Structure prediction request, 502 residues.
Amino acid sequence: MLSIVKTISLFGIVGSIIEVQVDISAGIPNWEMVGMLDKSIQESKERIKIAIKNSGIRIPSKKISINLAPAEIRKEGTSFDLAIAVGILQNLGVVQAENEEVVYIGEISYDGAVKSVNGILPMCLEAKKLGIKKVYVPYENIKEATLVKDLEIIGIKTLKNIIEKSNLVILKNNQKIKENEFNIDMSEVIGQEKVKRALEISAAGEHSIILVGSPGVGKTMLAKRAITIFPELSYEETLEVMKINSILGNIKDSLEISRPFIEINPNITLNAFIGGGRYPMPGAVSLANLGILFMDEFPEFDRNKINLLKNILDTKCIKLDRVSGSAIYPSKFVLIAAMNPCPCGYYASNIKECICSKNKIKNYLSKIGKAILDRIDLQVNVKKVDYKLISKTQVCEKSKDIKARVKQARKIQIERYKKDGILTNSELNSNQIKKYCVLDKETTEFIKELYIKMGLSVRSYNNILKVSRTIADLNYKENIDIQCIAEAIQYRSLEKLYKEGM
Ligand SMILES: [Zn+2]
Prediction:
């Protein structure tokens, strides 16, 4: 007799239904499992056998054949255990098959306990997408699973729960996600009004930004607080962020979440940066999805990583190729890069004299490369704050007030681009720039002059227009005017540094 039980496999964030086909027949006692299985699944035989025995069920001495279909999907991990066990139990008549489309997910231990697995949230989301109505999950994963709307979730602690139909915890979507409040605030940074304004523009239009300044001027402090002026996560965004964390097993029982801020330095391994492993897991660029990726000491990142970054900024995802296929993870983030202006750190600073030769500075700057700089819309100098400002008891604007403006500007953009499939100004392509960044005659003359005088590339010209569009949105202006352009042009400080006699 053949019995069929379904489970789900995940490759990247894409799920596929896997059929566990179990046949038990007379013959030499043997247990055979096929279907492009990784070693980890082959090893589950022993676990499942002992777990069934310890759940009070005797497996007859017969020939047990198990096929995991479709064969072309590589299967890995321990999440198939439960479905295989249920398949055997159904075949033995111990468990009845259900009438509706059901999926079983979970690892099983010797004593029959059903243990938590990583990736429950994306698996349940995919199961729903594939038409499944009901999912059995490890009890420990139940909260995460019930974040998925309109899916019946049944949490089980042991195999016995299924055999005896007892202690099944049935939940429907009723979980509230708690968005953490940040314990830092932009108002803690004294002065730096121009940088704060640039960060506001960056948050409003999702523009990437580079902060250039000497050691100790507060680049990191500012970057860390940038996330506090981003809008709150929507329900869909929360699920997106949780998905990646679910795959890595990072979801806490309290279901707390914040918009991601991921800080990395040049020593990061390639695997940790883009993701990797034989079964590709997400890396920093995907953990930063829908948040900020902060890359400190930017010129020190090796060329390979910068080239990859360039592609990621263009495609907003990362493709990890393996023999068994490509795993694609989302990587849509706002890049905040930080760097010293020169190797000694004090070129053009108000702190001390730079001791670097022109050549040394030129080499240092050339490490960044024009191609990546073209993709960073805002370039800002961060200077040391004047002592007079620090000594004064100055009241600085709170994150929540800046965030209110950012949200308003985002709303304008969402409304404007609802038919274009984009959300923010940074995503405008050259045709859309022509459509949405219309300038009057006077403003056109103004930018034309700048284009010639500053020797702008077409890309930087477009970047200026996109940033101007965000400035106009922040200032409730329907059209970009000279003022907007004049402000946007101020955020090209690195380009200027490149040009100044280098
Ligand atoms: Zn120097």
Q: What stands out?
A: The domain at 2-171 is CATH 3.30.230.10 (Ribosomal Protein S5; domain 2). Residues 230 and 336 are 13 Å apart (CA to CA). Residues 342-344, 346-347, 354-356 surround zinc ion (CB under 6 Å).
